[in-house]
């Protein structure tokens, strides 16, 4: 059935007697479209029909649809497809239900009668599953998997949340604003997506979670374990290192196409934040706030001044125990006392 997801155009569940159930997501793109166009479902949609039957044993559809050829090779004899429409108010159009028989002679009349009664109930169940899955998937896309789980668990009241300790990663694309005067909005969006994709990938591969995209910046957290805060710091540091290396590769590829070289600055900090619902009564944001977030933002401004793409706060450098060098003590706007700023040892 179709899905509402930025990466997948549809999802299918396949059940085989005596075998495992498999779930497949069909990605957007030429290959996915071409594969779908070679299915009985696409044929029925094009003709405006809601059901179809192919006698595989007699070769019907085998030469037209690779799926039916595969069923025939596995001993299939008969294939049914029924298209069931979801309620009009649903963004999802409906679901396709298919059955393949390996019974000699195909489906019997009694079996067809049972299927006719069963399919509408299955369609209703699919609608419920689709609505639930769509809500959870889209929420995860916009808020992150861990945050969406908390929202769906009932953490939805303004002000509801709590203090957590976390390693904070703030990544900012250097001098990106100047590019908006040279490139068209569509090109700017493309550049942002390319860099945000690599940042998001390396944050998530180390169990971090992006909380917010802010213009040309990304805010992510790595919640700490009370017994081992170093683990979260090392995960954040691994993400930062991988982001910087991947960014170099991306810029190298773009230079081959005479595109802009876009640097990224990363700041790592460790502290207590409030993680919960903030906003207006009818429009909330599940995010983090607190002095630690503000300090990370202020530290990022020093990257250009000090000429380093990766800076760490003292709390992060000490807790991570990574080899580091202090660059000095600096005053940050809105922070009462000067703070010590660190870089990785041996880096320029």
Q: So, the CATH homologous superfamily of the largest domain? A: Nucleotide cyclase, GGDEF domain
β-strand percent reads 25-35%
And the CATH topology of the largest domain? Alpha-Beta Plaits
Question: How many domains?
Answer: 2
Average pLDDT metric: 91
**Any low-confidence stretches, pLDDT <50, length ≥5?**
none
Radius of gyration: 27 Å
Share of helical residues:
40-55%
How many helical stretches? 11
Q: Outline, from the CA principal axes?
A: elongated
What's the CATH first level of the largest domain?
Alpha Beta
Count every beta strand, where a strand is a DSSP E run of 2 or more residues: 13
SSE order, as H and E? EEHHEHEEHHEHHEEHEEHHEHEE
CATH architecture of the largest domain: 2-Layer Sandwich
Largest sheet: 8 strands, mixed
- CA(first)-CA(last) distance: 53 Å
Class inferred from helices and paired strands:
alpha+beta
């Amino acid at each position: 059935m179709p899905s509402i997801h930025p990466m997948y155009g549809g999802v299918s569940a396949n059940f085989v007697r005596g075998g495992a159930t498999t779930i497949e997501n069909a990605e957007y793109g030429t290959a996915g479209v071409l594969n779908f166009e070679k299915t009985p479902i696409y044929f029925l949609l094009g003709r405006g029909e809601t059901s179809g039957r192919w006698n595989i044993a007699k070769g019907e559809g085998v030469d037209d649809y690779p799926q039916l050829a595969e069923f025939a090779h596995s001993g299939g004899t008969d294939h049914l497809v029924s298209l069931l429409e979801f309620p009009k108010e649903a963004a999802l159009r409906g679901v396709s239900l298919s059955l393949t028989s390996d019974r000699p002679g195909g489906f019997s009349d009694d079996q067809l009668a049972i299927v006719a009664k069963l399919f509408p109930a299955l369609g209703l169940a699919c609608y419920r599953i689709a609505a639930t899955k769509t809500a959870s998937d889209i929420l995860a896309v916009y808020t992150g998997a861990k945050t969406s789980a908390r929202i769906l668990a009932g953490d939805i009241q303004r002000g509801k949340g709590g203090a957590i300790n976390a390693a904070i990663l703030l990544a900012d694309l250097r001098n990106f604003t100047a590019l908006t005067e040279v490139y068209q909005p569509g090109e700017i969006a493309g550049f942002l997506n390319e860099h945000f994709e690599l940042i998001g990938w390396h944050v998530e591969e180390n169990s971090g979670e992006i909380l917010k995209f802010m213009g040309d910046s990304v805010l992510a957290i790595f919640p700490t374990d009370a017994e081992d805060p170093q683990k979260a710091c090392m995960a954040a540091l691994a993400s930062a290192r991988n982001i910087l290396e991947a960014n170099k590769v991306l810029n190298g590829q773009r230079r081959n196409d005479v595109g802009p070289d876009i640097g990224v600055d990363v700041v790592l900090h460790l502290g207590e934040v409030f993680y919960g619902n903030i906003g207006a009564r009818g429009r909330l944001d599940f995010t983090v706030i607190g002095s630690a977030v503000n300090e990370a933002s202020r530290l990022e401004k020093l990257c250009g001044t000090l000429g380093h793409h990766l800076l760490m706060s003292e709390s992060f450098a000490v807790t991570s125990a990574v080899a580091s060098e202090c660059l000095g003590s600096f005053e940050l706007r809105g922070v009462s006392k000067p703070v010590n700023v660190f870089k990785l040892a041996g880096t320029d």
